[in-house]
Amino acid sequence: MKKIRKRKRPHIIARISAYNEEKTIARVTLKAKKYVDKVIICDDGSTDMTAGIAEALTTGVIRHERNISYGSGFMEIRYFNLI
């Protein structure tokens, strides 16, 4: 009898760019974790507690010293091969 292999489900990653989002980053991250396998957050130079909250909730955090732009976080995630 031939053995049937189970298909692995796709690995789904949420990439979130954030700038001064300390009021919402925890809620967004926790909701995203319900639907994906991994959450990566790019803190784009926030001056509030966004990065600290993100680091407490997920292991994938990129921090910029200053605000660069919305799209830069997504490019960095691919460049550093975090996905």
Morphology call = elongated
SSE class: alpha/beta
Q: Largest sheet, described in full? A: 3 strands, parallel
Low-confidence parts:
none
Quick check: average pLDDT? 82
In summary, what is this structure?
This protein has helices spanning 25-33, 50-57, 70-79, and strands at residues 13-18, 38-43, 60-63.
Keyword list:
83 residues, alpha/beta, three-stranded parallel β-sheet, 3 strands, 19% strand
Structural account:
The chain contains three helices and three strands. With 83 residues, the chain is an alpha/beta fold. The chain has one domain (13-79). Strands 1-2-3 form a three-stranded parallel sheet, sandwiched between helices. α2 (50-57) links the parallel β2 and β3 (60-63). α1 packs parallel to α2 (50-57).
Write the topology of this structure.
Blueprint: E1 13-18, H1 25-33, E2 38-43, H2 50-57, E3 60-63, H3 70-79
Parallel strand pairs: 1-2, 2-3
